[in-house]
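> Could you send the Sodium/proton-potassium antiporter GerN (CPA2 family) prediction when you get a chance?

Sure thing. Input:
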Amino acid sequence: MSSYSYLLDLAIILLFTKVLGLLTKRVQMPQVVGALLAGLILGPAGFGILSETSFIHEIAEIGVIVLMFCAGMETDIKELKASGKASFVIALCGVIVPLVGGFAAAYFFNKPGMIVSDADASVFLQNIFIGVILTATSVSITVETLKELGKLKTRSGNAILGAAIIDDILGIIALTVVTSLADSSVKLGTVMLKIVGFFVFAGVVGFIFYRLYKNWVDTAKKELHRHTIIAFVFCLLMSYIAEEVFGVADITGAFIAGLIISNVRRSDYLQSKFDTISYLLVSPVFFASIGLKVVLPEMSGSIVGFAVVLTIVAILTKVVGCGLGAKMCKYQNYQAKRIGVGMISRGEVALIVASKGASLGLLGTAFLGPIIIVVVITTIITPVFLKVVFRPGTAPVQEQLIPESEMVTSYYENANEIRGEGR
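Output:
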């Protein structure tokens, strides 16, 4: 007999994420914090009511894809181009500083008398790999928070998005370099070629699709549901091809698909449709699934100490690294602080990287607990810190939304209507 327990799981997740989201909203925190807490409370780290099933995992994956697709549709292409160099510098500093910081923390603790590792790789590679884990950025948390605050289309928001996409690429390269040293089957040259190939592919296919889709949508007499369906098909195909064919994160494919469609005259209509499916089902499941992944093992005093140090290093290195990169690119102090805070969250990205390292003998089982703690804390505090750094009075002048004169189309004016209120 078929099991219908997944229906109950969905009902519990949707109920708890909304209730806790409203509670966190009452204490002036973004609702996404409540959704994350719901996953922790319901999962193995809390009361153990739910565990992550393959069904929840797949719905969550669709959730993050939709979230990044919407972020792409909300992003001003002209501003993204203008901040391209700055985004690269911010991402580069946001990778190098955490890599060094993570290595230093691991170098101090990963030794006899402190923490005994059962990993097969050399201690040097193990320490480097912990640094690689800290380079990860889970921008989905930041995107949802900035949407809720109505700040995604600010210059800081655009810089965060651009830097996060480049951060993903640099993170893949760093991961590949380390894993290739531990696994001879991984070839750095092949990975680099695939990354370049993906962006060439996205440019060619994206341009062709854009011309055909824009002509079809813009010449229609009214908005049609079929426009939304084809847009979603394109998003899913780009996500699939990015991950399966080129080895680039699926969310990068989704984001680029959103960028391509953002220039369509009726992009505000398309975005409103995706916003509905996002907050109604897939986004709550995604944010709750992060908490459901957390299983806290028993930890000794030295491991707890390492967890505390690694968490502090994880927070400071992103704020300092990305903030320093922003200052090098002439951003104001308040903007640099916002960009640094927006890049703190490690989320599910760090868990995926950690599991990859564990399977290759690059990460000892004793270090999994501290990594999980880093993921939990950085994921929860990022929305809280963003609320603080974006509150009124934290800047000499209020950071304005990108002016309408600079927008790609006049129909883009409603793209900032996605809010947390009334959801």
